[in-house]
């Protein structure tokens, strides 16, 4: 989709060195200045073209930059810019937020703009039970995501506000980003392009691990159970098999 809205690059503006000809510097001799004025007079017929071309090129470049910027900032249905500030993440096709931004959402800093915020914990159930973001829903399988989010989509009670979905796993490197892409693909298949149930999706950078270390008070229980915990080897094998 981004490719459809990405504009082709525009060549750089015309070099401006030629514009300085015919303008003597303070150190030029009178004879040299006279010679330069004569050369400038000979080139008078082409000078308007040289002056106009950079203006046209600069204008085109500015439009291209604006179009590219808008494409990067618009949500999935292209109706408005993203609400939450984003940070750079591993997958350039996804929008990542910091643990601090999630904490701000949880404490109501964006409540005047958000009707519902759904935090989707994509880790396995034993990880979730060992500690999770308060209010997060545990959806570790694709069928769980479809049932919870798409069979009966969550719609805002206030049409002027937004529904946002924030997904994560332990590190938000594999399971969370994959689930985010899956949700967008399934959502697209339910609509005529570019309409979506959930146009505003985010991935929590650093995952639950980073969030817990920075904001343990927003976690319940206040603990962190890693996926490869030695006491849950059998559970890990089972849930990995289900995920495949």
UniProtKB/TrEMBL annotation:
Swiss-Prot/TrEMBL GO biological process terms: cell division; G2/M transition of mitotic cell cycle; positive regulation of G2/M transition of mitotic cell cycle; positive regulation of G2/MI transition of meiotic cell cycle
Keyword entries, A-Z: Cell cycle, Cell division, Cytoplasm, Cytoskeleton, Hydrolase, Mitosis, Phosphoprotein, Protein phosphatase
Catalytic activity: O-phospho-L-tyrosyl-[protein] + H2O = L-tyrosyl-[protein] + phosphate
SMART domains associated with the record: RHOD (SM00450)
Sequence ranges assigned to domain Rhodanese in this UniProt record: 113-220
Gene3D superfamilies in alphabetical order: Rhodanese-like domain
Segments for region (Disordered): 1-45
UniProt cross-references to SUPFAM superfamilies, sorted A to Z: Rhodanese/Cell cycle control phosphatase
Enzyme Commission (EC) number: 3.1.3.48
A single GO cellular-component term on record: nucleus
InterPro entries to which the protein is assigned, alphabetical: MPI_Phosphatase, Rhodanese-like_dom, Rhodanese-like_dom_sf
Superkingdom assignment: Eukaryota
Principal place of residence: cytoplasm
EC top class named in words: hydrolase
Any one GO molecular-function label of the UniProt entry: protein tyrosine phosphatase activity
Residues passing through the membrane, by range: none
UniProt key word Cytoplasm: yes
Family listed: Belongs to the MPI phosphatase family.
Function: Tyrosine protein phosphatase which functions as a dosage-dependent inducer of mitotic progression. Directly dephosphorylates CDK1 and stimulates its kinase activity. Required for G2/M phases of the cell cycle progression and abscission during cytokinesis in a ECT2-dependent manner. The three isoforms seem to have a different level of activity.
Protein name per its UniProtKB record: M-phase inducer phosphatase
Organism: Daphoenositta chrysoptera
